């Protein structure tokens, strides 16, 4: 799962990013509204943590850009401002939640998880696709009654594919989802082939069907 932190307090942003990475999230950071708008127009995020007070403008402008471009990224407003006016304005522009500083990291993690579940999986922490069952909270995958051992990248890949089932997802989209900003530094997609091959093998060895189809020249599709 990929998170964008939009926060001009660099030490706070670094602290949040470190904590989220320890929780197995892929994290990117923007310190200004301009930098944030460039990122949200170029990439998709599972959840955006948005500070309203930014050095080059109000963070609500970022929400307006998301809405204008019909982006469906989850958004949690994080700000020292705790006024009803800011909260209502943010929610009316499409924010999914609101958290005032200071806050505890476990609460932030819980709220991120809740937003992602609502946006991607209808509020459920459990994804089921025929014999495959994925627990988003426990980060476990079962094929029937047999648990399979996946790496973090393989788990993220499976969740990403199931969240986009019956849709073709490009190699670029997968690279960005699994590697964040680092995807721009990758000249080849060998790491995608490797993760995809290992994921398919583990699912099939556990008795699962091969739902991951290669769409030549385009990417991959998760479907029956």
UniProtKB/TrEMBL annotation:
One of its GO terms (biological process) is regulation of DNA-templated transcription. This is Response regulator transcription factor. Pfam families: Response_reg, Trans_reg_C. One of its GO terms (molecular function) is phosphorelay response regulator activity. PANTHER family: REGULATOR OF RPOS (PTHR48111:SF22). SMART domains: REC, Trans_reg_C. The modification 4-aspartylphosphate is found at residue 51. The keyword Ribonucleoprotein does not apply. Residues 2-116 form the Response regulatory domain. The lineage of its organism: Bacteria, Pseudomonadati, Bacteroidota, Cytophagia, Cytophagales. Residues 124-224 form the OmpR/PhoB-type domain. It comes from the Bacteria. Residues 124-224 bind DNA. It comes from Chryseosolibacter histidini. Keywords: DNA-binding, Phosphoprotein, Transcription, Transcription regulation, Two-component regulatory system. InterPro entries: CheY-like_superfamily, OmpR/PhoB-type_DNA-bd, Sig_transdc_resp-reg_receiver, WalR-like, WH-like_DNA-bd_sf. GO terms for cellular component: cytosol; protein-DNA complex. The keyword Nucleotide-binding does not apply.
